[in-house]
Specification:
14 strands; binds serine; Rossmann fold
C-alpha cells in the first residue's frame, strides 16, 4: 500500500515551508486547516480539507478516506492567544492532539505499520521562576524547569506526555512482553522562537522578533512589547523544518527520547534590533514598551537550551548565528519578498 502524509494546521507558518519540502521529495500530502490552503500550495497537495480539527465527522472522514504513515500535527493556538481564551486553547491544543493520536493509533493497528506523529512543542513548556534563576541557567535541558506558566506551555507539555503515552502503550518497546513492531511513533521537537522571511506568526509571544524585522523591511514603525534585555533562543524557519524532517527520518533505534530540545541562536531583543538597524537604516526607529503580561511570559522562558541529545541522536546542528541568519537567510529573502509585493 502507498501511504499518505497528513499535515494539520497546514496553512500556518510551518506548513508553508514543510509542504514544499515534502512535495519536492514526492510525498503524497493531505492537509487540514481551518482556513483555505494558500493557493500557491494547493498544487502540491492531493487534497486540502478546510475544516475544524475539533469537528469529529470531518476529521473521521479524512482517516476513512486515506491511510497515513506520517502525520505532522501542527494545528495549535500559540501562547499569547491561548492566554486570552484558555479553555478553548486547551481544547484545541490538547484534545485536538488526543484526537489525532487516537486516530493514528487505530490506523497503525488496522494496517500493522508504524505511524509517525511529528509534533511541534516549544520553549513555553519551561517556567523559570525569576530572572536570577534564568540568568544562572543559560542552557536548560529537557528535564529541567518543566513547570510552564502559560496555558499554551501546559498544553504542549501535556501533549508531549500524551504522545509518549500513546507510543508506549500501543507500540511496546523492547523487553516488553507485549512487544510488536507496529503502533504509534511519536516524535517531538521543542522549538525556540521561529523566524520566517515570508510569513508572520499570529498570537505568539516570541513574535516581537519576526514582527520587528518585517516591520523594518516594510519601512514601518514597530513598538516592541518586551524590553531590550529580554533573551530567548530563536531559529530560522528553514532550519526548523529541516530539523523536523530529519527527526522524522532518524532510525528509531537511535532515539533515546521522544522529545528533543533544539537551539538556534540565543539573542536579546536589543541584539536583534541592532541588526535590524544595520540592515534597514532608513526604517523608523523601534520603540521598546514592555507589555507586563507578554514580558512576564518571556521572562519564564530560558535564555537558551541544551540540545546535546538532538545532536547526539539524530545529528542536529544549527546552521545560523544571529548574524548569518540575517545576512544569509532573512535579508535576501525578505527584501525580495516585499519588493515583489510592490
Ligand atoms: N513561538 C511560540 C509562541 O510565542 C513559542 O513557541 O507562542
Amino acid at each position: 500500500m502507498s501511504y499518505y502524509t497528513l499535515i494539520t494546521g497546514a496553512n500556518g507558518e510551518f506548513g508553508h515551508g514543510l509542504i514544499s519540502k515534502l512535495y519536492a521529495q514526492g510525498t503524497k500530502i493531505i492537509t487540514l486547516d481551518l482556513n483555505d490552503l494558500d493557493p500557491t500550495l494547493v498544487p502540491m497537495v492531493e487534497k486540502a480539507y478546510r475544516l475544524d480539527l475539533m469537528g469529529k465527522e470531518g476529521v473521521d472522514e479524512i482517516f476513512e478516506n486515506y491511510d497515513f504513515d506520517q502525520i505532522y500535527h501542527l494545528a495549535a493556538l500559540l501562547s499569547t492567544s491561548s492566554e486570552r481564551i484558555p479553555a478553548k486553547a486547551c481544547n484545541i491544543n490538547v484534545m485536538g492532539t488526543v484526537g489525532v493520536l487516537d486516530r493514528a493509533v487505530k490506523q497503525a493497528e488496522k494496517n500493522h505499520i508504524r505511524v509517525k506523529v511529528m509534533f511541534c512543542s516549544t520553549i513555553a513548556v519551561y517556567g523559570l521562576p525569576n530572572l536570577e534563576v534564568k540568568a544562572a541557567n543559560p542552557f536548560v535541558s529537557e528535564d529541567q524547569f518543566v513547570t510552564p506558566t502559560t496555558m499554551y506551555g501546559c498544553n504542549k507539555l501535556a501533549c508531549e506526555h500524551l504522545g509518549s503515552y500513546y507510543t508506549f502503550n500501543y507500540m511496546q518497546l523492547k523487553d516488553d512482553p507485549r512487544k510488536r513492531d507496529y503502533g504509534l511513533d511519536f516524535r517531538c521537537i521543542r522549538f525556540p522562537g521561529v523566524i520566517s522571511a515570508f510569513t508572520l506568526p499570529t498570537g505568539g509571544t516570541s513574535d516581537y522578533a519576526p514582527e520587528m524585522i518585517h516591520a523594518a523591511a516594510k519601512g514601518e514603525k514597530y513598538n516592541c512589547f518586551v524590553r531590550e534585555s529580554a533573551k530567548i533562543p530563536f531559529i530560522t524557519m528553514p532550519e526548523a523544518i529541516d530539523a523536523l524532517m530529519t527527526l522524522s527520518q532518524a532510525p528509531a533505534e537511535k532515539l533515546t527520547r521522544r522529545v528533543y530540545n533544539i537551539g538556534g541562536f540565543a539573542a536579546t531583543a536589543g541584539e536583534i534590533y541592532a541588526l535590524v538597524r544595520e540592515s534597514f537604516p532608513n526604517a523608523p526607529e523601534t520603540t521598546f514598551n514592555p507589555d507586563v503580561a507578554r514580558q512576564g511570559i518571556v521572562d519564564t522562558w530560558p535564555e537558551d537550551v541544551n540540545d546535546e541529545a538532538a545532536r547526539r541522536d539524530w545529528g542536529y546542528k544549527p546552521t545560523h548565528t544571529l548574524r548569518s541568519a540575517f545576512t544569509e537567510y532573512l535579508l535576501p529573502n525578505i527584501k525580495a519578498f516585499y519588493a515583489n509585493k510592490k
